Amino acid sequence: MDYRKKLIVEPGTKIKLRDIDPAFHGKHATHEAALTDLQKEVARLTQLQYLLYAEKKHALLIVLQGIDAAGKDGTCWHVLTAMNPQGTTVTGFKQPSEEERAHDFLWRINRHTPALGQVGVFNRSHYEDVLVVRVHKLVPREVWSRRYTQINDFETRLVDHGTTIIKFFLYISPEEQLERFRQRLEDPHRQWKISDADYKERAYWDQYIAAYEDMLQKCSTSYAPWYVIPSNHKWFRNLAVSRIIADTLEDLGMKMPKPTVDLETIRQQYHAAATTASI
Amino acid sequence: MDYRKKLIVEPGTKIKLRDIDPAFHGKHATHEAALTDLQKEVARLTQLQYLLYAEKKHALLIVLQGIDAAGKDGTCWHVLTAMNPQGTTVTGFKQPSEEERAHDFLWRINRHTPALGQVGVFNRSHYEDVLVVRVHKLVPREVWSRRYTQINDFETRLVDHGTTIIKFFLYISPEEQLERFRQRLEDPHRQWKISDADYKERAYWDQYIAAYEDMLQKCSTSYAPWYVIPSNHKWFRNLAVSRIIADTLEDLGMKMPKPTVDLETIRQQYHAAATTASI
After folding, report:
1. DSSP conformation class of B257
2. Among A21, A163, B75, B269, which one is least packed by beta carbons within 10 Å?
3. Total Cβ atoms within 10 A of residue A38
């Protein structure tokens, strides 16, 4: 299935998240049934990232957003273990530091955009400035409401430089979030992560959904589309995300660069070295 | 086998690389025979990095040096696929930029040291400033010869902050390097990487060995030891490196941090949320 067609937010359209089933899982019924496809996508990602790294004509920026426990960390790990770590960077954007707050909201983001040949993953991003910032009224409406255009302008600049931008909104149901909180609560290895705010934020669910819907409508563009990934099933989320990335990279028509040296000359150097007893 | 004991450069001792067999491979005869042990070390690394990330009391800096084709990239990949990419960064240090050259040699290095909770891998490092810089006489002897002390002072500061430093010199024979060049020459996916300098650098082999030996003697310290890793066999190199890292991390006695919240209160919040029909 072409998940790009199925899961894209068509530029300019208003979507209602309640019309999307966060438990959607495509044709496979279980993780086990999807394993072969998952491995296939991982292999494609490995090969395509190598091409991107070698060719150095494109950069790839992957943006991950989603409510707490939606699976941003897990998605990062899944996508990046397919790739050579030398060509990738993950940046997690938390509450801005004092220095970051003293600059415009895109200043800290701009410093972490991937260079040509590189893959950058943003675990949370500049979109927090129209999400948590809006929901908790950290800046007035006239400030955050101008940011959609500012974000689109910023992303246009990145695209003009050769960056491919793919944005994933990981969508889970409130029941699934609650279940994941419960698992965390009973897992001694993850209890340290639990914050008092986890449950308090749930009271803002509807406001978050409204903010997500506006973000998706206003910032899904032809050059930097948003995809809504049904994420109740982690394995489906991983499959959809990796296939969308692989399909997008494949469309770039990247080619292995030609050798910068004359291979015949190098072969002669090799034979000269190989026939020298001592080196 | 305790590879730390076997492969460490004892602080203050002068080592002769020619006394070390780059084809050493421990008790296993083949890659297949070593697979179980390799997987065991990967699992240890995964668990220990999670602890480091959770506890945030230590940072880990891994320094990789070695002649061209010694396997620095492959080692990076092997070690880092065991770890959550959110807690890791690889920095490749190439020829310094104009801005970097306008600063002291540790300026660019310092910007990439890992924060507490993070793992940083340096693919080449500040040691290039006593290696290639020395061999090709890019600065006078009185400049590079002072750098050993400056490096030790710098590393002391990192260690004082909570950084564990492990330095690996990946050691291959000239014959093995030649064989790897040959493979690269015949592999269409890697021909683009071939540089005219590859063979020219081989003429400096002995000078490099002398520079490596000085670096190992002067900068293997109790707080930031160098290990010489026999690297003709890639699988042995991976096994030795990952075991040394895991053993070193284990000695830190890291503990999962305690929850910052009262779990009973959170459980009540969970039950309150779970019994609310709508959210």
Report:
1. P
2. A21
3. 18
- In this complex, is the C-beta atom of B188 within 8 Å of any C-beta atom belonging to chain A? yes
B124 within 8 A of B72, measured Cβ to Cβ: yes
Domain boundaries, chain A: 3-275
Contact by Cβ (8 Å): A155, A131: no
Calpha distance A18→A49 (Å, rounded) = 35
Q: What angle do CA B139, B143, B149 make, to 5 degrees?
A: 135
Residues B213 and B28: their CA atoms lie apart, in Å, by 28
If one counts every other C-beta atom within 10 angstroms of the C-beta of residue B40, the result is: 14
Q: Residue A32's CB: how many other CB atoms inside 10 A? A: 9
The angle that helices B234-250 and B31-55 make with each other, rounded to 10 degrees, is 30
* Spatial contact of A167 and A222, defined as CB atoms under 8 Å apart: no
Taking the C-alpha atoms of residue B20 and residue B7, their distance in angstroms, rounded to an integer, is: 10
Quick one: closest CA in A to B276, which residue? A175
Q: What is the largest CA-CA distance in chain B?
A: 76
Count of positions (residues) in chain A? 279
* Complex confidence, ipTM: 0.87
Residue B109 corresponds to which amino acid?
I
Query: How many residues can be counted in chain B?
Result: 279
Q: How far apart are CA B46 and CA A73, in angstroms?
A: 15
B221/chain A closest Cα distance in angstroms: 28
pLDDT in tens, A130-150: 999 999 999 999 999 999 999
CA distance linking residue B23 with residue B234, whole number of Å: 10
Task: Report the Cα B77 to chain-centroid distance in Å.
Answer: 11
- For CA atoms A124, A64, B88, B149, the dihedral sign is negative
pLDDT (tens digit per residue) in B62-96: 999 999 999 999 999 999 999 999 999 999 999 99
From CA B122, how far away is CA B147, in angstroms rounded? Answer: 18
Instruction: Report the distance separating Cα B148 and Cα B226, nearest Å.
Output: 13
Structure tokens at A35: 């394993």
Size of interface A-B (CB pairs under 8 A): 123
The partner residue sitting opposite B178, judged by closest CB among A263, A265, A273, is A273
Which of A51, A67, A80, A255 is best to mutate for the B interface (most B CBs within 10 A)?
Answer: A80
Q: Which DSSP symbol is given to B111? A: T
Residue B278 has pLDDT above 70, yes or no: no
Chain A segment 19-58 residues within 8 A of B by beta carbon are: 50, 54
Residue at token pair 């890291």:
B254
Is pLDDT of B269 > 90?
Answer: no
Question: In the sheet that A163-171 helps form, which strands lie side by side, from edge to edge?
Answer: A88-92, A119-123, A59-66, A163-171, A226-230
Which residues share a beta bridge with A66?
A170
Of the candidates A84, A259, A273, which has its C-beta nearest B194's C-beta? A259
